[in-house]
Design brief:
This protein is α+β, with helices and mostly antiparallel strands. Helix content is 31%, strand content 31%. The chain has a 5-stranded antiparallel sheet with strand order 14-13-12-15-16. A 4-stranded parallel sheet has the order 2-1-6-7, sandwiched between helices. The chain is globular and about 55 Å long.
Length: 283
């Protein structure tokens, strides 16, 4: 039987218990032996000049594949070079989990986006590169966290003091409180969800926004397929901002994507699709 690891941090298992159970159930239905592995119990490194993986300090038999639900591109790479198929790949993980790097790559394939500047913490200028208001995001932030709406010079000064990492600085000339998440499995567009908030400039569902299915038009599908063709995805969410004229503007790629909004707005079983995709790729 094909075997795999579902890797989560201990902290994330608490709020994702039902999602993990769903993962395991779908794997069982499709005759895959999927086992939950806590990242804190896993040790990776090099021993006697060879790569190794230990679970609870014991050497274990390696599975055929791993679904990595932590953000640690080096872990993905380590598993890959030890012979596992990893979902998502280390390349997808390394690009998607750095907003600056993601925007660089998407610009190379001609995706429209808001004006965007990148900066290390120590290089953030005293005078912002954009007119107020604008948005500052730490490159590794997720779920609407580490995102700052800057309206005044005082906001800018306070933000500079809070920032700890590399950032992207972006124009806020969009429909604030609204974005589109497109769910992808492999090369397939599964569905698109329009997220909206009337109380926050961020539309994240976890932050109190609403969500509903959205029908993509041909032009929007063409944009999305450019991204799909560029990468070898497992399962991701591609997020777009909405321009003032309703056009899609690339925002980010969610590597460790959840499906709360999709489940709330539809009866699509995305994990059934994902496990099927993995099984077909392994076999």
């Amino acid at each position: 039987m094909i075997s795999g690891w579902l890797i989560y941090s201990k902290e994330d298992t608490k709020q994702n218990a039902s999602y993990i159970e769903w993962f395991l159930e779908e794997a069982t239905k499709q005759s895959l032996a999927l086992k939950l592995i806590l990242r804190e119990e896993m040790t990776i490194g090099i021993v006697d000049n060879s790569q190794c993986i230990k679970i609870n300090n014991e050497t274990v038999k390696l599975p055929d594949f791993a679904i990595v639900r932590t953000i640690e591109p080096l872990l993905n790479l380590h598993l890959e070079t030890m012979g596992m198929r990893v979902f998502n790949s280390s390349l997808v993980s390394s690009i998607a989990n750095n907003k600056a790097l993601t925007h660089h790559h998407m610009n190379q394939i001609g995706l429209p986006m808001v004006d965007t500047f990148y900066s290390k913490r120590e290089n953030i200028p005293d005078t912002p590169p954009l007119a107020y208001p604008f948005i500052v995001k730490e490159v590794s932030g997720r779920g609407g966290r580490q995102v700052y709406y800057i309206e005044t010079p005082m906001d800018w000064m306070n933000c500079k003091m809070r920032i700890q990492t590399e950032v992207v600085i972006q124009s806020a000339d969009v429909q604030l409180g609204k974005d589109l998440r497109v769910f992808i499995v492999g090369k397939e567009i599964v569905a698109a969800i329009l997220r909206q908030s009337s109380t926050d400039f961020r539309a994240n569902y976890k932050l109190g926004g609403t969500a509903g299915l959205y029908q993509l038009n041909d032009r929007e599908k063409e944009q999305i397929n450019k991204i799909i063709d560029y990468f070898e995805f497992g399962m991701v969410g591609i997020d777009f901002l909405i321009g003032q004229s309703g056009e899609l503007l690339f925002n980010e790629i969610e590597d460790v994507v959840g499906s709360r909004t999709l489940s709330a707005a539809s009866d699509i079983n995305i994990l059934e699709m994902y496990i099927s995709f993995i099984k077909n790729n392994i076999t």
